[in-house]
Amino acid sequence: MIEPRTSPPTPLPRRGELSNFRSVASASPRRNARTSPEKCPPCADFYTRATVALLSAGEGPGVRFRRLLLLLLLTLPAAAQDRITQSINAGWQFRKADGTDYAHTTAVTGWGKVSVPHTWNATDVNDDEPGYYRGVGWYKKTLHIPANWQNRRVYLLFEGAGQEAEVYVNGQLAGRHAGGYTAFQFPVSKWLKFDKAATNEVVVKVDNSPNPALPPLSADFTFYGGLYRDVYLVAASPVHFDLDNYASSGLFVSTPAVSAEIAQVLTRGTLVNESASKRRLTVLTELTDRAGNVVAQQRSGLTLAAGEKREFRQTFAGLRRPHLWSPTDPYLYHVTATVREAGPASAPPLDAVSSPLGLRWFRFDAATGFYLNGQPLKLIGTNRHQDFPGLGNALPDALAERDLLLLKQMGGNFLRVSHYPQDPAVLAACDRLGILASVEIPVVNAITDSEAFFQNCRTMQTEMIRQGYNHPSVIIWAYMNEVLLRLPAGLTKDNEAGKAYLARVAALARELDALTRREDPTRYTMLVNHGAFDLYQQAGLLNISQLIGWNLYAGWYSGGFQGFPDFLDRHRRELPDKPLLVTEFGADADARLHSFQPLRFDKTTEYANRYHQFYLKAIQERPFVAGATVWNLAEFNSEGRQEAVPHINNKSLLTADRQPKDAYLFYQAHLLRTPFVRIGSRAWTLRAGLAAGPDSLYCNQPVEVYTNQPSAELLLNGKSLGTHPAEFGIARFTVPFSAGLNQLTARAGTAPADNVEVQFQLLPTKLDTEKLPFTELNVSLGDQRIFTDAKLNQVWLPEQAYAPGGWGYVGGHPYKLPGDRLPYGSDRNILGTEYDALYETQRVGLTQFRLDVPAGQYEVTLHFAELEAVPAAEQLAYNLAKPDAIAATAKSTRRFSVVLNGLPVLSDLGPENGLPPLEAVSFKFPVNVRKGQGITLDFSATADEAVLNGIQVKRVE
Ligand code: GCB
Ligand code: CA
């Protein structure tokens, strides 16, 4: 190896070139005002030499040869690095034990075997019992430590534990950590036994009990407990890069100035000498390109006394014509810092750390949005929660990575990592895939005005920044989400206590914002609010952060779609200097529910489609909207939620098992550059409907085709239904489905054709006809939606009034929960069923249900759920006080009877008698129908009114 001192002089940029740098700092005057926290320590023996070995064109042969030689030498394989990092996920034991101490817990038996990632809430967040286990869980594991680790500094590294942890090694407390979403690591050498025969016991107490000092206090997601991310053992040499800096890598890489011509890279770190003697050391930092070639290196020498800890920094002044990082070309360089004994470069490494390096620059403009590498770029993407069905939040990295790939395949270029820092695999995937990211700590809905709460916030923010600092994908650090959503009991924005609270929230915001700018002046700060403009204005929260994020649900939780652009325009008018992002927008979409006349809050796919169509247009039409992230990428667990699928928030583009909903295809049609065409509602492969007329053998239903081409053609069983223009990404068709299999094919331009097979259940309009014999009918009463049950292969149709020859109800009206949110039905959790959406709607006061079926053997099943119950359901979906809603008691005195073809089958049904509130109840009756008789159900009430939630009629012979 050539000592850098003798290597050719580095072609550093001349002054004039440097001042041409286009960078975040020079592009945005506000950011210039920031001062850098990076201070070079006063170190007498600190020397540094730079070599930049980028081969550039137009050089003389001599220079070229020397450079080639240098490049060759620099790429010689390095000796093995001396730090050992190994996961210790396997072979843990687990025990749930609330309120017990270390001595007691470790003495008892009854431990189960688990491996991490692990959560104790994987299943109890989905059952009918209110709440989920929030308490203590203990983990223990035996470790065999190699005898030759005696001289190493051994650490335990936890990528995350929900929500608080205490780590014990051989009975001694090694450390405590508060906060469920950031990593922590503790030195454990001093308690380890290195004897070959000895075993070491690690015990971790994890606790997800509510803690008023620890964010999040309340939120629309589940606060899972457990060791739910990877756990590692780290063994470093006594001379090592800092392992005690908020579980960061100890190496901080930034890019103070980047342009298309030249890039500056700054590395900072701290070196620790835990050996017993003074050491003369060299830190060699190398930048390598994607192929592994060293493109620049820096060497710094420093002498550390025994026990000394010393900062170093290295500036790579001029990386010429850097390969820039961007969503379309996420090119990554790599940084590796290695420490060796001073002297020959071939000395074995003592420690090494590495980091990705992406060269890019960016800025936000309040009027014109976001710019990456000097080009305007509309940030479009989603939010993401970290759970998965059946696993809770304890995911293998691969599932997190798959989510990011799905976002990329949608054409997304932006991820809001909500509402908390996630697995390190997430930002690593963002770096690789070219997805820009905003990351935040989980201060959600409210704060506690205590020093302990404030301190936990500061620590979390620092951990988040230091742990994520080196990811080129990160452009924003945020720290609060809708913090004024829930003012503490008794407080209003106008009373004294309320005003004092708002002032404390603002004080915390100011502190966290200042901390963030100090920690990392290269990113932007952001505060995220719900749509209460005046309230946040009054609290002074709109002029603290550099960016404002708005979570806007106009046309969902309240009002109409127009409220959305009106709100954006208001921000533009009143805060003309503040760049904004739409950090959340979305509508529930239960993949089972469809309607061709969708209504606000009906949770159908089609309503969500309209919502996204309106919103995306408004976002695109406004250049000042720098970015927007859909709420949410995939369905996620929120244990306290009710709605059509209890415990699940389904405002998402993907189902829980990551199948695309229509809105995902819609964004693909807008964001993908390669020719694209997909048939909408592609998962709705089982459909049903009434024949178009008494003599028809088909049913007309709309089908949407998503494409980025000017038009699309749709074929049904090989026959063209025409070519229709795509309007804002959608070509609309009416498809005459016939009974059985229907093959749809969509074609558009050069996009690969798309195929979907739909199984159609065609129902006769007149039930007694030979042409289309009656087989079965499933009707959801009080409902205007179609419900498809893929599991049982059944489709439920919306109710209709009876007409002779057909079927339907006589009399009554649809149930509607008071309030202006739901168009009909209730949103309360119905116990004892997975078909909440069906039981949540009901016809009240009907006198009959009739079907003019031909003679034969039938089965009639009636479905009921008493929807009148106290206390009244929560009005706000993200208002999470809930357990009492389950322990509902009857509000109605209902008593009614049902007579089936003259036979009294149900008598005096009511809350007191067979119909407890909010529970699914059904009765099945066999019926022998004579010719001309049909099926008639008569309903009569002796108190209140009769009800019916669902009916199924099936011909059995
Ligand atoms: C919000 C919250 C988010 C909720 C979402 C919803 O504004 O920030 O945590 O899940 O609304 O679906 O209500
Ligand atoms: Ca992981």
Automatic annotation (TrEMBL):
A Pfam family assignment: Glyco_hydro_2_N
Species this chain originates from: Hymenobacter negativus
Record carries keyword Iron: no
Domain Glycosyl hydrolases family 2 sugar binding: 124-234
Domain Glycoside hydrolase family 2 immunoglobulin-like beta-sandwich: 258-360
Stretches assigned to the Glycoside hydrolase family 2 catalytic domain: 370-668
Region span, Disordered: 1-39
Ranges of biased composition (kind: Pro residues): 1-12
Residue span(s) of domain Malectin: 826-931
InterPro entries on file: Beta-gal/glucu_dom_sf, DUF4982, Galactose-bd-like_sf, GH, GH2_Domain-Containing, Glyco_hydro_2, Glyco_hydro_2_cat, Glyco_hydro_2_N
Protein name in UniProt: DUF4982 domain-containing protein
Entry keyword Lipoprotein: no
Ranges where the DUF4982 domain occurs: 702-747
UniProt keywords, alphabetically: Glycosidase, Hydrolase
Family stated for the protein in its record: Belongs to the glycosyl hydrolase 2 family.
Gene3D superfamilies: Galactose-binding domain-like, Galactose-binding lectin, Glycosidases, Immunoglobulins
Coiled coil residues, start to end: none
